[in-house]
Amino acid sequence: MFSNPGPDEIKALLERARRVAVVGLSPKPHRDSNRIARYLLERGYEVIPVYPREDEILGQKVYRRVQDIPGGVDLVDVFRRSEQLAAVTEEALAAKAPALWFQLECVDETAAQRARQAGLSVVMDRCIMVDHAALLGRSWKAT
User: What is the distance between the alpha carbons of residues 62 and 74, in angstroms, rounded to a whole number?
Assistant: First the structure.
């Protein structure tokens, strides 16, 4: 059975990540994905939207798939329905991303185990913004 990393490992992941692909980043400001991506941008992270129907979101160029992002990413943050997580996991693996974060209510034990067995750090069914604020503080900025 899958279990999330402890607080120290999550904190270390958030400290070392700089480039974050946000899969399912909505262009709508009231959506959680948009609000959380703005939070990450305000804290100095480079946010790269992955979304099928836009060219730019939050002033950032949008990519259709994680593996299309030039230069790779440090973390793939996922806002997709649980039944789509296996496909996103395959994208993260193809992109050689070192970490995968499934947001609240995004749960796929098999996909999480597959990613972990491939060597990725995996966090599932947790909010990156809540964990960032709790572990690093709202004023912490990536450098």
Answer: 17
Would you say the pTM of this structure is higher than 0.70?
Answer: yes
Is 80:125 a contact under the CB 8 Å cutoff?
no
**Which residues have CB under 8 Å from 49's CB, separation 6+?**
21, 22, 25, 37, 57, 58, 60, 61, 62, 63
> Alpha-carbon distance 29 to 143, whole Å?
26
**Coil, helix or strand for 124?**
strand
pLDDT per position as a tens digit, 20-58: 999 999 999 999 999 999 999 999 999 999 999 999 999
Please give the Cα distance from 63 to 60 (Å, whole number).
10
- Token readout for 129 is 């913004």
For residue 142, the model assigns a pLDDT of: 87
Q: Name the residue type at position 111.
A: A
Joined together, the tokens standing for residue 65 give 């798939």
Q: How far is CA 84 from CA 7, 79, 88, 98, in A?
A: 27, 10, 7, 20
